Amino acid sequence: MDSKRIINKLGFMQGRFSKIENNKIQSFPWKNWRKELDTCKKVNMRIIEWTLDYPKLLANPLLKSTEETLFFLKKKKIILNGVTCDFFMQKPFFKSKFKTKLNDLIYVINKLRHLDIKLVIPFVDNSSICNLSEERKIEKVFKKIYKKYLYKSKLIICFECDYSPKKLKKFMNKFPKEKFSVNYDLGNSASLGYDVRQELSILKNRIQNIHLKDRLLNGGNVRFGSGNAKFKDFFNYINNINYKGAFIFQSSRNQNGQHLYEMKKNIQFIKKFI
Predict the structure, then answer these.
(1) End-to-end Cα distance, the chain
(2) Of 274, 199, 197, 214, whose CA–CA distance to 249 is shortest?
């Protein structure tokens, strides 16, 4: 993948051009979501990953007014690459300590299954898979979802998981390749201490979506180049797996509220490696 192709595939996680709302690092930017679709063009970004979260999941415009929202994105010449299901991480159905929210997941999948997009399901942090029993629950539910909702849909499910690469590959082999893939997160990999080259070489073509951010080892998000993410190794090796998808910036925000400036700095940073 040449540098021009990578630049054209850069996108942003919804909310990264806005200040934090309700003290959440990532959430749907209710006050600013329309404005972001203009702001992103100032850094030549036209690809977005939408955010769905609680508490107002069903009021989210992508679910409540789907066709109108899609038309608005088209009018703004913004490509909807994917949707990240933060609501799933907030209340994962397979955790006994949470009230089951499986119906919400099924509703979202059914509502969006006609779209040619990636639906990112996070198995990290609050929704990390902790034991075999949880893994079996997940396998059972998503296989049923596949048969009922995904078999003839355009939607692709992307699991984002904190498993080691070998364990994740084994887990992914339980699901049909044509509808289940991996969302690779460079920052999470750095935080967990995984080897980028090993991950990419093992997961290869199961990777269909990528999040770019920097994190400290066993720590949180930081500005690109300030943490432990191996950007050079990542961009040197990404060509070997024939990846054709987007690179979604899930980067940290500017502490002084200059979010556009922060995004410009992050883009300048990765240009050194491509």
Answers:
(1) 9
(2) 214
Strands 180-185 and 221-222 turn out to be unpaired
Question: Is the previous residue joined to 165 through a cis bond, with omega within 30 degrees of 0?
Answer: no
Instruction: Name residue, tokens 């990953």.
Output: 49
**In angstroms, rounded to a whole number, what is the distance separating the alpha carbons of residues 9 and 245?**
7
The per-residue DSSP string of 201-245 comes to: HHHGGGEEEEEE-EE-TTS-EE-TTSSS--HHHHHHHGGGGT--S
Q: What share of the chain is helix, strand, coil (3-state, %, to 5)?
A: 45, 20, 35
CB neighbour list of residue 187: distance below 8 Å, 6 or more residues apart: 211, 212, 213, 214, 215, 221, 227, 229, 250
Are 125 and 88 a contacting pair, CB within 8 Å?
no
At the topology level of CATH, where does 3-271 sit?
TIM Barrel (3.20.20)
pTM: 0.95
pLDDT of residue 160: 98
Q: Cα(109)–Cα(155) distance, rounded to whole angstroms?
A: 8
Render pLDDT for 103-160 as a digit per residue (tens, 0 to 9). Answer: 999 999 999 999 999 999 999 999 999 999 999 999 999 999 999 999 889 999 999 9
d(CA 172, CA 191): 22
CB 228 within 8 A of CB 221: no
